[in-house]
Structures are given as C-alpha cells and as structure tokens.
Amino acid sequence: MYARQSALAQYRKIDTESALEGASPHRLIQMLMNGALDRMLQAKGALQRRDIATKGLMLGKAISIISGLQASLDKEASASITGDLDSLYDYMQRRLLEANLRNDVAIVDEVASLLITVKSAWDSIDPSAGVVPGI
Questions:
Q1: Which of 9-13, 25-29, 55-59 is most confident?
Q2: Domain segments of the chain as ranges
Q3: Measured between alpha carbons, how far is 120 from 113 in angstroms, rounded to an integer?
Q4: Would the pLDDT of 70 be above 60?
Q5: Model confidence band, residue 18 (pLDDT cutoffs 50, 70, 90)
Q6: Which CATH superfamily is domain 32-124 in?
Q7: Secondary structure of 52-93 in the HEC alphabet?
Q8: Labelling 49: which of 42, 75, 82, 93 has CA 20 to 30 A away?
Q9: Sorting pLDDT into bands at 50, 70 and 90, what band is 93?
Q10: What is the reported pLDDT for 14?
C-alpha cells in the first residue's frame, strides 16, 4: 500500500511540475486557487474524520497558498481591485486560522465560497487579451 501511495505522490509531483513549466501567469493563479480549494476540501474531510493533525496541515497549506496569491498582487496595476483583493485574501487567511482553532467546517465553507467567487471572475478573464489585472 505504501509503495502505491509513494508512486502516486511521485506521479502527482511530476504532473504538477510539468504543468508549472509551461503555464502562463494567468494559469499559475488558477492553479494556486485550485490548490487552495483542494486543501480546504481535504481539511474538511479531516475534520469530519476527527483527524486534527491533517486538518491543521491542510489549513496551513491553504493559508500559505492564499498568502502566495496575496503576494502576487501588483499593487500598481489597479489600486482599487488589488486593494480589495489584498483585504479579501487577508480576511480569508484570518478566517482559516479561526476555523483551525475552532474546528469549524462552516468557516472553511465560507472561505471556499469566497475563493470560488474570485476564481470564477478570474476564470472569465481572457488571458489572450493581454490584460491580467492584479498580477
């Protein structure tokens, strides 16, 4: 069983590295958002199983990814949009810390819903138009 999991983990690592190599900045942001959503989903599953260690690890990873999204904001591109996103990303991180402390699935759902809204808007941007706000 361990060999299978190890092989699967190695495959995922190679697959992710390959996807990163040719990804546009627009696609990289999409991948980060997907990663944060995946980690929140894994944290919810861990909470439901009462696996506190995994819950903490996954929420920590989601927070780190959201921090990366926040750091990628181009503060000079569109001050109002990036300022709003900066505040939203900060709020998301604080809420995930609270969810971790309280073992609260509802807070994880709230943050996931917010990120899905941002991701939906991001996904609607045509990357070929040459305008990628906020990065």
A1: 55-59
A2: 32-124
A3: 10
A4: yes
A5: very low
A6: Flagellar protein FliS (1.20.120.340)
A7: HHHHHHHHHHHHHHHHHHHHCCCCCCCHHHHHHHHHHHHHHH
A8: 93
A9: very high
A10: 45
pLDDT in tens, 42-63: 999 999 999 999 999 999 999 9
Q: With b meaning 16 or more CB within 10 Å and e meaning fewer, what string describes 42-68? A: bbbebbeeeeeeebebbbebbbebbee
Q: How many CA atoms within 13 Å lie on the side-chain side of 98?
A: 12
- Show the CA angle centred on residue 132, arms to residues 128 and 135, nearest 5°: 140
Residue 15's identity, in one-letter code, is D
Residues 6+ positions from 89 with CB-CB distance below 8 Å: 66, 67, 69, 70, 73
Q: Which residue has the tokens 């709003």?
A: 84
Two tokens, residue 13: 């690592």
